[in-house]
Design a protein that fits this description.
- By secondary structure, the chain is mainly α.
- The chain has helices at 3-24, 47-77, 81-105, 131-150, 177-203, 212-244, 260-280, 343-366, and strands spanning 33-34, 37-38, 158-163, 169-174, 312-313, 317-318, 327-329, 336-338.
- It folds into two domains: 3-108, no CATH class; 130-301, no CATH class.
- Helices cover 55% and strands 7% of the residues.
- The longest helix has 33 residues, at 212-244.
- The two termini are 37 Å apart.
- The model is unreliable at 252-256 (pLDDT under 50).
């Protein structure tokens, strides 16, 4: 199979994966959240809700079929820009299907429960708050940098760092600070961003339930989210360290470093993450309750995620200046999103965007 056909097959696989993920997303949110709208926990089983869900899923797969056809046409007609159109088509189509489903659901919205719970004791820090554990990805990058420094004389004056789909070298670097240590610095920057996200999940999120099984589920969910982030940090550190080793494996006719092992590991990890998120659900909603935990009374059950519907723009962007939480649970999907009404959120966004850009500019100038 030629490289172009392999790329088409890979892109089609990605498109189908995205469509499948959008297919199951409505079932991952809390029971009282349906297409980013606060509802009663029983609404999902009504005929109206089932009809809305069927229409949404049908639209997702129609757009997936169109996007796949565009990829096939791009390969057969030799029009590579159609591949970009296919990606945007599927992303835009899924979002429009979500907006339509949300519009159908809004007339059934209910206000969130006014009752609030607060924990007196601090949250348990958990294993992923350990500084030694958080230092592991950075230690991998630092060890690689030290090894490269000790073997500096073995690094050629010029070495390849990128190969095209045709197997030809198309990007080179020199034996300089930017050329040798650039990948490690970029990896450290990404790991630092992920570590900050993990810290935010532990300290900047709202706890909906302060007691009982609900609190236990939320605590486990936060720990699992931080665990996924930590493993991602390790993967990033190993990947960028492996990239930084390329100069030491330089030969007169260097072999193309195979990306297959990394792609397979990334795919397996992604499938594991998706499977785990399906198992937990948003906020640990799908986790089994312990038999010893008493079932809460109906009036004790929380309605929604304690955020007002009117503060959600298009159901995915949260803006509430009166909310002290920096991170809130996503309304569609699993995980957390920033409260853009909080000043800290803009500081975080600015740092996460500007630091990599400044680092790339600095390294390119040095190179």
């Amino acid at each position: 199979m030629g490289a172009p056909y392999a790329m088409d097959l890979f892109l089609i696989t990605v498109l189908l994966f995205i469509a499948g993920l959008n297919h199951i997303l409505p079932r991952l949110s809390r029971r009282e959240i349906f297409f980013a709208v606060t509802l009663s926990s029983s609404y999902r089983e009504t005929p109206d809700a089932r009809k809305t869900l069927r229409r949404y899923r049908a639209a997702v797969w129609v757009h997936a079929l169109i996007a796949t056809s565009l990829v096939v046409a791009a390969g057969s007609q030799g029009v590579p820009w159609l591949q970009i159109v296919a990606i945007y088509w599927l992303a835009g189509g899924c979002f429009l299907a979500f907006l339509k489903a949300r519009h159908e659901t809004l007339p059934h919205a209910q206000p969130p429960a006014p009752l609030r719970e607060a924990a007196v004791l601090p949250r348990p820090s958990g294993i992923f708050s350990s500084l030694w554990l958080q230092a592991c990805p950075f230690a991998i990058l630092a060890a690689t940098a030290l090894y490269l420094q000790l073997h500096w004389s073995e690094i050629p004056a010029k070495f390849p760092v990128h190969w095209g789909l045709d197997g030809q070298m198309d990007r080179w670097a020199t034996r300089s600070f930017a050329g040798v240590y650039g990948p490690l610095l970029m990896g450290a920057c990404l790991c630092l961003s992920l570590a900050l996200m993990s810290y935010g999940i532990q300290h900047w999120t709202r706890q909906l339930r302060a007691r009982g099984a609900g609190a236990t589920q939320e605590s486990f969910f936060r720990a699992s989210q931080r665990g996924i982030i930590w493993v991602t940090e390790l993967f990033v550190a190993v990947t960028f360290s492996w990239t930084a080793w390329i100069p030491l494996h330089h030969r007169p006719s260097p072999l193309i470093p195979s990306p297959v092992p990394s792609l397979i590991l990334a795919l397996l990890f992604l499938l594991f993450v998706v499977g785990w998120l399906i198992y937990t659900g948003q906020g640990g909603e799908h986790l089994p309750r312990a038999a010893s935990e008493p079932s809460p009374a109906p009036e004790e059950l929380p309605t929604g995620d304690r955020t007002p519907d009117q503060c959600w723009k298009a159901g995915v962007i949260y803006v509430n200046r009166n909310d002290p939480a920096v991170l809130v649970e996503k309304r569609f999907g699993v995980g957390y999103t920033l409260n853009l009404g909080h000043p800290v959120s803009w500081i975080l966004l600015g740092s996460l965007i500007l630091i990599p850009l400044l680092l790339s500019f600095f390294l390119s100038r040095m190179h």
